[in-house]
Amino acid sequence: MGGAVSAGEDNDDLIDNLKEAYYIRSDLVERAFRAIDRADYYLDEYRDNAYKDLAWRHGNIHLSAPCIYSEVMEALDLCPGLSFINLGSGTGYLSTMVGLILGPFGVNHGIELHTDVIEYAYQRLDCFIKTSDSFDRFEFCEPSFVVGNCLEVPPESRQYDRVYCGAGVQKEHEDYMKNLLKVGGILVMPLEEKLTKITRIGPNSWETKKIISVSFAPLALPKHSTNGKPKTVPLRESPLHRYLNMEILV
Predict the structure, then answer these.
(1) I need a surface site. Which of 5, 128, 223, 249 has the fewest CB within 10 A?
(2) How far apart are CA 111 and CA 101, in angstroms?
(3) Phi, psi (5° rounding) for residue 67?
(4) Where are the domains of the chain?
(5) Are 51 and 13 contacting, i.e. CB atoms less than 8 angstroms apart?
(6) Active-site positions?
């Protein structure tokens, strides 16, 4: 999915094209997109393709098309201090943009199936923190990534203000995804080949909006452990939240 806007010469050119095509519609989302060079999440030998409105995959490493990420960022309706989980967090590109908006008191979790992709995401995150001018211009909510299957979040885990799933969700898993949300929260996911925005407006009530047609690889189903019980994913707190909790305990 992609190719909806013209190719750019650099990151700013790409963002200009996404704005012109009305994929980026808010100043907040525009600032986040301009702050992070998409090419920094490509392997060096593929950087020439970074500013095309196309998805990219190399082995397990995957980036969705810029027009998809634009629609996702707009639909999430982000603001500082929210809690967010990225199911299938991949390279960390989206999670890092989200972190620029959430600020220092947000929560920014990611779950990714592949260990090599987690390692790649942390390399990209470290590079952003150490080398990007944007890191000094924003109050950043640093993402925390863990390896696991996003259908194995333990039921006692927190609910989130915002949830994004970067894989096609089968209809039978729709309720599982919804239950990750707090009341008032927003879930964005590919559901039945439509990028779908679901808002939890009450304990048992939801508002659903179809955004655009998409084609995503389906969610990988969980594998059971040897004793027949499903595994669970241990979600980490962000460094700041660990520090604040220590201060409270002291």
Answers:
(1) 249
(2) 20
(3) -65, -30
(4) 11-219+236-249
(5) yes
(6) 64
